[in-house]
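Check out one such.
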Amino acid sequence: MRKGCLFSAGAFLVLASIGLIYYFARQSRTESGDFELEKPVLSDIVKKAVATGAIKPRLEVNIKPQVSGVVEKLFVEAGEMVKKGQPIARIKLIPSEVNINAAQSNVEIGRLRLKEAQRELDRQREINRRNLDVESAKVNFENAKREDERQRGLFEEGVISQQEYNRFKVDLEIQKAAYENARIGAANSLKQFETNLDIQKQELDAALNNLQLLREGASRQSKQVANIVVSTIDGMVLDIPVEEGASVIERNNFNEGTSVAIIADMNALIFEGKVDEAEVGKLKEGMLLEVTVGAIQNEKFEATLEFISPKGIEEEGAVKFEVRAAIKPTSKVFLRAGYSANADIIFDRRKQVLAIKERDVLFEKEKAFIEVQTGDRIFEKRPVTLGLSDGILVEVLSGADTTLQIKVQNKAPNEDGNQ
């Protein structure tokens, strides 16, 4: 009985040992033969850098009022297209009594000055009509002329000498010049009084216009009503940051004023973004970009790099440089201002070239090899010449074709944890 038990236990141990040996041998063969094969493919390879940023209009203008007051009426809404000169809003003026009183005082002073200038002009015209301002010079000239005639007669009779006669002749010329100057001065004086009258009229008109502007927001001579805010460009209204009834401040040298509307030309959009300092040295103006917008799926927009900032900005421990690119206009999709976007900056591109996964390339002594299947579980190393790489795919210039079966190297674990 005891011998039978020992015999049974020994047989069990032998069978268990044989089973374990078989299992480990099979497992070893399975693991050694666990590999995948891939063929080279024809694919586009693009070497690029990525910039993150947003879509912005090239021309964006804040429209501000010319006068302070309260928004009485808004004529447009966000999203509308407007033309240059189109009314945006009407401002109701709330003038200061101090300013009104000062303007009224300027009007009264202007009227008094105008009356005084008119009275002086009338007086000068009467003097000029009666020749009172040239009469004295005219009398002196006539006297000198008569004296010259008398002295010339005496000279011709030999009573006086040539030198003495020349003295009277020179005096005649002096009195003649004085008479001509008096006539010219009288005409100029009249013109000065007329000019002064015109100046006083203009000052009175300016005072009246200023008073009317304070009271009504518009002057008599102005082609544009000052309390009407108009668009300064053609474009789309992006935002109306004020509401009817809100107070606004005019733009001046001391205050930038309140923005009534934000208008932009949406036909000229740019991409503004930032790239890492490791990539900025490779960039050049004129490079092509492919812009992808997060809010628009499966669409890419072409752009041309036009600006690279000469100064970097440190953000979260990294130095980044601002870049700007002009987006090629498109009618297929409407791009909104402020869309977040990414731009792929293309350094180099290959279209439909033979490519393999970069992970399947082996490097030995600065030479590249791939493992090609030549038989059942038999592989051969073959040298290849590589070209452009995008980090995943690499271009094969020589040493492979689409018929080869290439062994996959360093295969990543699957989700279930198996190789």
Notes: The first strand starts at residue 37 and ends at 38. The chain has three domains: 46-54+268-407, 60-86+231-264, 97-216.
